[in-house]
Amino acid sequence: MSTTNAVESVVDAGATSLLRFATAGSVDDGKSTLVGRLLHDSKSVLADQLEAVEHASRNRGQEAPDLALLTDGLRAEREQGITIDVAYRYFATPRRRFILADTPGHVQYTRNMVTGASTAELAVVLVDARNGVVEQTRRHAAVAALLRVPHVVLAVNKMDLVDYAEPVFAAIAEEFTTYAASLGVPEITAIPISALAGDNVVTPSANMDWYGGPTVLEHLETVPVVADPSDDPGRFPVQYVIRPQTAERPDYRGYAGQIASGVLRVGDAVTVLPSGRTSTIEAIDALGQAVDVAWAPQSVTVRLTDDVDISRGDLITPTGSVPATSQDIEATICHVADRPLTVGQRVLLKHTTRTVKAIVKEIPSRLTLDDLSQHPAPGELVANDIGRIKVRTAEPLALDAYADSRRTGSFLLIDPADGTTLTAGMAGTAFAEAAADAAPAAEADDEGWDF
């Protein structure tokens, strides 16, 4: 199969493609109710699940079922009527499959929103029509822009509480669109809804005849998410080396993993990083069958014409698009651990399937999401902080800029003592930059961490 035909096959699969999306918004804007309404009205709720929600709602003195309970599963969430952790739900319609992440609205759970939106192709930002765009709305728009989420939906909720007034919706949509566009969000779609009543969630609203756009579900079903994989450079992180050494396959040596981006073809000249050794793709096996071409995000086994020393963590890439390798990494990070990240701290850096030792050399700035200003040389980053860091690794890594590839431009910092995830990182330039005085680099110790 040619690359062109392979790409056409990917595009043809759009009718049953997968969309990952996340919800965000301030406290009590109705995120969980919107998700519950989507699940309920799209007939994606099992009878026993709905019965359990109805029973819980009656126990709380509510006549109608509280659809937010379909996602708020923790006891603390139900007692307080808030979302604390990211709740993932899976559902499907005849046109598309969905993985949704219902993320918390509290400022203290910003890190959870980052987690939920990090793999999302679309973010639904809710706004209470009575309150308009508030500080947390701007914060979530900034996080979506920082994470390079390609599509953002502004869902102006609780329109029933403002008499379905078009001017209210128009003013909120204009304010949010202007702000999000200034952050570089590429596509913004505004939809007036009432999650509680079901207006414009799955079915069009009879109360807003002035609105002629799609419902939330219709937009989710039709937003384009199938990209041409040949537009991206080929990146294949090796996860496992397969050497069966059986009588049937005594010389089989395959490199298994998931293609992170781009296309691989039999006959391609490839380079293995970080060693720089070169070879040619002899064969590609997918689901037990030999194929001529494979593309992201397929899981395959690649065989090369030469016996090259390759192990887990190495990167196979077409020779014509080899990324630069470096031990010095500059990135924007969101700190997710309760313990702070400090200058001079020893960490493990995990990039795709490769994990190496590293030292935090500098923390030049911390981002204030309220006004996008930079606080220079903070010295440390605490939970939910977003900031710039400079890291020195023990071995060279092949990171793409996060703006070019969310998969190969992202990494994690891990505590080497207990394996706790400390930080989610995005290599390269952030969506907004401000001049900041660099903090002096800390002197590394001599316990095997001085690179």
Task: Give structural attributes.
451 residues, alpha+beta, eight-stranded antiparallel sheet, six-stranded mixed sheet, 19% helix, globular
What report would you give on this structure?
- The chain has 451 residues and is α+β, with helices and mostly antiparallel strands.
- It has 8 helices and 25 strands.
- The chain has helices at 3-12, 31-41, 47-59, 75-80, 110-117, 135-146, 166-182, 216-222, and strands at residues 18-25, 87-92, 97-102, 122-128, 151-157, 188-192, 236-237, 240-242, 254-258, 263-265, 269-273, 277-286, 289-291, 293-295, 299-304, 315-318, 326-335, 341-342, 346-351, 354-368, 373-376, 380-381, 386-397, 410-414, 421-427.
- Strands 7, 8, 9, 11, 12, 13, 15 and 16 form an 8-stranded antiparallel beta sheet that branches. A 6-stranded mixed beta sheet has the order 2-3-1-4-5-6, with helices on both faces.
- Strand 24 (410-414) and strand 25 form a beta hairpin.
- Mean pLDDT is 84; it is low at 6-15, 74-83 and 432-446.
